[in-house]
Amino acid sequence: xxxxxxxxxxxxxxxxELPIPVLxxxxxxxxxxxxxxxxxxxxxxxxxxxxxLDIQQLLVRHPAATFFVRVSGTSMRDAGILSGDxxxxxxxxxxxxxAIVVAVIDGxxxxxxxxxxxxxxxxxxxxxxxxxxxxxSGFEVWGVVTAVIHPYS
Amino acid sequence: xxxxxxxxxxxxxxxLHRPLFALADCNNFYASCERVFxxxxxxxxxxxxxxxxxxxxxxxxxxxxxxIPMGIPVFKIRHEIARHRIAVCSSNxxxxxxxxxxxxxxxxxxxxxxxxxxxxxxxxxxxxxxxRDLRRYASKMRDTxxxxxxxxxxxxxxxxxxxxxxxxxxxxxDPLGVYSAAESLMHANTSGPETxxxxxxxxxxxxxxxxxxxxxxxxxxxxxxxxYTVYDYMHxxxxxxxxxxxxxxxxxxxxxxxxxxxxxxELTLPRQSIISSQSFGEPIDSFIxxxxxxxxxxxxxxxxxxxxxxxxxxxxxxxxxxxxxSAPRYANSAIGTIDPPSxxxxxxxxxxxxxxxxxxxxxxxxxxxxxFLTGIHPEGMQMRxxxxxxxxxxxxxxxxxxxxxxxGRGIVRSAAEGTLQRWHMKQxxxxxxxxxxxxxxxxxxL
Lengths: 153, 446
Hints:
The structure holds 2 protein chains of 2 kinds.
Chain A: H1 2-8, H2 55-59, E1 66-72, E2 86-90, E3 100-105, E4 108-115, E5 122-124, E6 134-135, E7 139-149
Antiparallel strand pairs in A: 1-2, 2-7, 3-4, 3-7, 4-5, 5-6
Chain B: H1 2-12, E1 21-26, H2 29-37, E2 46-49, E3 56-59, H3 61-65, H4 78-83, E4 87-89, H5 93-108, E5 114-118, E6 121-125, H6 131-149, E7 153-158, H7 161-173, E8 178-180, H8 182-186, H9 188-191, H10 198-203, H11 216-224, H12 230-234, H13 238-244, H14 246-256, E9 274-284, H15 287-307, E10 310-321, E11 331-342, H16 345-359, E12 366-374, E13 377-378, H17 391-407, E14 442-445
Parallel strand pairs in B: 2-4, 7-8
Antiparallel strand pairs in B: 1-6, 1-7, 2-3, 5-6, 9-12, 10-11, 10-12, 10-13
Helix pairs in contact in B: 5-6, 13-14, 15-16
């Protein structure tokens, strides 16, 4: 009982009842020495530090709405989309005329150029060595391609 | 003069002078996520299996309409699956979690006051909106989430969270996916809730078990008192409710009458207990693989602890055979303290292994193991004077967590988890981790 009061009230504490904190070092890790000791001149660039560039900032405008897909095939070669490329697809972007889009036709994904010039929008492939391929109806735009990542290996 | 004119115009707009909650609830969330990346599933009934491909844990509307019950073992509906061309997906929680984050991020653009209530539900505060703008704003929110993420949500709006939940149920049936109980309840101030129209008619049809916080067992008690619908509950004897259903039931009563008692929990509090358990793909009949499985679940639980910057001081483990069937049955659990409290994976695994040794019996085919951590304290808190919070342990685990985050879960793991992991969960038809792994991106053939 008396030790309990001793803990609560510093005025009545006695040397015998309260354990005296002792630093016991049983490892080679020094306690509380995690930061380096400041010495020498401060860096003249200190005021000017900035974050390194992050490629995500450049390629992804709407993180919640942006997806990456990988493509194979040559039907969009003339638009600069080659087999093995990764496309950045932003679902928040309004699909306008001439946008390259990921579209769904009969439950299958494809990537084509969206044209909205005529009465009805249509999708067009871009490969001059093929006959002009167009899809006139029954498609749905899934997202707009905003960039192509083309790895050289 | 100009100023007063503006002011008058402003006050003329009808404002709702009370909190306004919206519940945004994803429709058939798991099935909807699968459909975003596999449009072929859109016109088929879809069911999602539990993490071991055992039972149905989620269904699309079409599957619900076919009468496929929640939780049924998949082998029992083999014929229906074939007959109705039901698509069967293993659960892909990695994908669902990422899609959930995207949805919550999108909702946050509409208000900073948001409580993420579950993987597919969030409460939002929309107090500042006028009555007229409310529905339009909710529609905009719904359309944006749909366009950005591909997942349909319904939005229920009401002056309390409990009512918003009910409005959310009605929103599911609404062709536009929005239901507001706010307008009908707004005028309740003056003339009592009796006068407000359609919402009160609707809740005469909703069973009492659908009220947030009223479980199946409590619903039975209420039914015995002649309380069958939400409306009945609202008009039950307040004294009886206070006495029999304690403060929780009373709060529900008040909330149903439009007095907000439950506030938005914008901060996520650290969980007070952490569970990690799983059924095995193949039953385990020897000690070593059982110990390895338990080590994996312990490592998972320890990671969850560190994510919320906590340590645990109490551990319970359990093992069990199949609870039914003709094979010999055995189930047992053991509790032990973790002293000093820790989130250091090796320490927890060695504790779990000791506990396992104390309850393991040979000659059984084990189906499931699990671990439960509690006695949660904030990291770095000294329990007694001489407890030393180990800096080195913490640094090791930080490095492990960073590596696993960067290179994929399990790239660095404890040797105690084993390398064969034959008992690993069975997942025969899991979709890709489209949004979290560069190796599993959606593949489109041009």
